[in-house]
Amino acid sequence: MKLYGDFTKKDWLNTFGVQESQIPFSFIVHGEWNHDINIKLWKNILKDEVWLPKWNTVIGKYNGINIGYANVFGGPMATTVVHQFGLVGTNQFIQTGYMGGLSNEVKYGDILIVTEAGMHDGVSHWYLPDQHLVESDKHLVDMAIKYCEQKGYSYCVGSIMSTSAMFLETTDMISEWALNGFLGVDMETATTLAIAKKFNKKAIGLMNLSDHLIKKL
After folding, report:
1. Which candidate, 167, 204, 164, places its Cα nearest to that of 187?
2. Alpha-carbon distances, residue 170 vs 37, 163, 174, 213, 217 (angstroms)
3. Going residue by residue through the chain (217 aa), what tens digit of pLDDT does each one get?
């Protein structure tokens, strides 16, 4: 009997019951509590040759390219997507979702292009045990900046703190993270970046502001 940590690429392909050609090139990992509306939306976007490997995941073609979308909540849930698909061949992961703002630099409507994430998520240190920060892929960061410039989207660039204990956040913690230069806090970005790096894949975080924590202090 194999445990998950011993699974190979072939094992995961057999588990999914698909061929390697069906594995998505890119995967959008979206952090949000409610998933029903998002899954319905992405089933429509990826309606060509759809397959559903998990209850929170849809994979299909967009402009002829295999793309995956998963709705997750927290680092452990993000792991079930990024680990499996990173191991079977997905090349890049885009972590999206919402964050609490830690800087007046970030405004509602901005896209935070994440350059690095603090690893307080409870998962990422298992993949990168000697690190406290994990970086986004620099090429993806440059591409995201260029795209926002071309489209005229409002954006900012910087680091985020990922935590696994949202209900234990205190004003002291928020103040410390803000003083250390983090622009926001979420639950999944460090997980996704760390697993991608472990498997030599590319990853980036693109966040929207849900509420301004620093203005509540």
Report:
1. 164
2. 31, 12, 6, 10, 10
3. 789 999 999 999 999 999 999 999 999 999 998 888 999 999 999 988 889 988 999 999 999 999 999 999 999 999 999 999 999 999 999 999 999 999 998 999 999 999 999 999 999 999 999 999 999 999 999 999 999 999 999 999 999 999 998 888 899 999 999 999 999 999 999 999 999 999 999 999 999 999 888 765 5
Q: Which is nearest to 24 in space by CA: 97, 82, 95?
A: 82
User: What CA–CA distances, in Å, run from 151 to 1, 106, 110, 145, 148?
Assistant: 51, 19, 13, 10, 5
- How many CB atoms sit inside 10 A of residue 83's CB? 21
- Given 3-state DSSP classes, what are the helix, strand and coil percentages for the chain, each rounded to the nearest 5? 40, 30, 30
Q: What three-state secondary structure class fits 108? A: coil
How many other CB atoms are there within 10 angstroms of residue 212's CB atom? Answer: 17
Q: Identify the residue whose tokens are 């060509």.
A: 48
Which regions of 52-106 does DSSP assign to beta strands (E)? Answer: 57-62, 65-72, 92-101
